[in-house]
Amino acid sequence: MKNLKTKYLLIILVLLVIPFFKEVDAQLINIPTNEIINVPVVEINDNQPIDFLINKKEFTVGEKIEAKAVFHNQTQQPLAGRMIVTVSPLDKSFPAKPFLKEFNLLAGGKTEDFISEMKIEDWMPAGIYQAEIEIQDDWNHLVGKKLELFEVFKEEKINNEIEAAIQICSDKDCSKKRAVFNKNELVYFKLDTSLQDIQINATVKTPNGKIDVLDFENNSSSYSLENSAEGKYSLWVNLSKENYKSRRIEREFTFEKDYTEEIFESICKVDGKCENEENEQNCPQDCSSKITKISNLYIFVAVILIIVIGIIMFILKRKRSN
Questions:
Q1: Percentage above 90 pLDDT, the chain
Q2: Is the dihedral of CA 229, 233, 239, 245 positive or negative?
């Protein structure tokens, strides 16, 4: 009898539960077929639907790196998420600088250009850097990523040299090169170069430490020694030109109130040798580059003749011994 009652109770319970399961099942099956379900996107690194470029591969201090990114939604559903661009040294010597932009795309859509800019500062170490982009959806799944490498140089990577020389003279035409001047003279400076449009920033440092700025016009300038202190003067000429390495030329001249031309001429003893206190400024007759080249040529010819004579004598000696 007990078993019969138990069977009846189970049948009643089943009859009560079946309608509930039918209702739930109907709700699960009743899904609109004309809408796309937005579900997490699996990682698609192999597809790489990202256009990612940087403006250069080499940078110097003061220049800007510009990273341009476009993401294409190549899935068959709407996709929302974020684009994250980071710039950092390859050796991770300082933290990456992040740039973020959110997106919400339909299937097959693409984002607008995402431009990330960063200036190369002087505190940033030289070396290899990376600009990297990651695409994440709203579930923080990685949709794709790319990176570009570039290099930072601490100095300008330019091979062009500024070929120039500064002449110190006692006349405007610079026909007389000098290194010593008296109180009644003007010191003339002339920049010799074949380049055009060179930027010239020149100063003169006096014996008492004062700095005077020179104005160069047509590669020439002058400096008055009136009411100046005796002693050595330093001339600093900084030259710059676009696409050329900057260059600094340093020269010296002396102001002596009791200086005379005779004293100057006594320094230069014209004998074809550039020696003692002689230099290209106070003794161009002996120390000019042209004379030096001629002297070197004579020495070279003499050495060749000695070698040739030695070889001839060696050959003759061998013949006699045979």
A1: 31
A2: negative
In a domain, 7, yes or no: no
pTM: 0.39
Which residues, listed in sequence order, are joined to residue 99 by a DSSP beta bridge?
85
Q: Which of 207, 240, 259 is the last residue of a domain?
A: 259
Rounded Cα gap, residues 315 and 68, in angstroms: 76
Number of domains in the chain: 3
Q: What mean pLDDT value characterizes the chain?
A: 79
Which sign does the torsion angle of CA 19, 21, 23, 25 carry?
negative
Give the count of beta carbons closer than 10 Å to the beta carbon of residue 257: 12
Domain containing 71 — which CATH number?
Answer: 2.60.40.10
Grade residue 299 by pLDDT with cuts at 50, 70 and 90.
Answer: confident
Structure tokens at 66: 């510009």
Structure-derived torsion over alpha carbons of residues 48, 52, 56, 60, reported in degrees to the nearest 10: -100
Confidence of residue 65 (pLDDT cuts 50, 70, 90): very high
Cβ-contact 89, 129 below 8 angstroms: yes
- 7's tokens: 């069977």
Which residue, among 120, 125, 123, has the nearest Cα to 66 in the 3D structure? 120
